[in-house]
Design brief:
- This protein is an alpha+beta fold and 188 residues long.
- Helices cover 36% and strands 22% of the residues.
- The protein is built from 6 helices and 8 strands.
- The strands form 3 sheets. The chain has a 3-stranded antiparallel sheet, with no helix packed on it.
- A hairpin with a 2-residue loop joins β1 and β2 (7-11).
- The chain is elongated and about 65 Å long.
- The protein starts with a strand and ends with a helix.
Length: 188
Amino acid sequence: VKIANHGLWHRANQTPAEWGKKKRKWRWIGHTRKKKRKRPPVSPEKHRLGILKEKGRQVETAGAETSLQDIASLLGEKKIGAVIILKDNGKIAGILSERDIVRAVAGEGAAALKKPAGDVMTRKVITCSESDSVHDLMESMTAGRFRHLPVVDNGKLAGIISIGDVVKWRIAEAEFEAEEMKRYIASV
């Protein structure tokens, strides 16, 4: 392996013992420069709930009369973990997650999939607002032991934040802070 022009080359199809015996055949295998990590658009402390701006505000919803089978199909199709159950007036009636469906099936068997979502959903939904910080979201999710948090703005559903979104944001923020620290140390 040799490094040239900020890249890696190696001798194609040769073992180290063959390097001196055969004509050298070098093959390009990539750049040595590190890829730039995606950083958060703004720090969560400077701009509250920047997660929604990055991921979007689309939320999958259903009515309380929708069967668990239909909701399970929706969860699998969209590759999501929870659906917000809405009342007729558009207000949040509850939330139905994968866990709720598994508990229902474990208790009642396959017949539970025919039940309406309103019978199985979590009715006491803890929500957050757009003024909550990412730290507040983490505390709520940890204390309540849930993975999805609906965002409500002026009484209306504005989005949903999952634990995966929070973790992704925190990793990006930590990488950004580490890069800033390296730049600061290099400039001193």
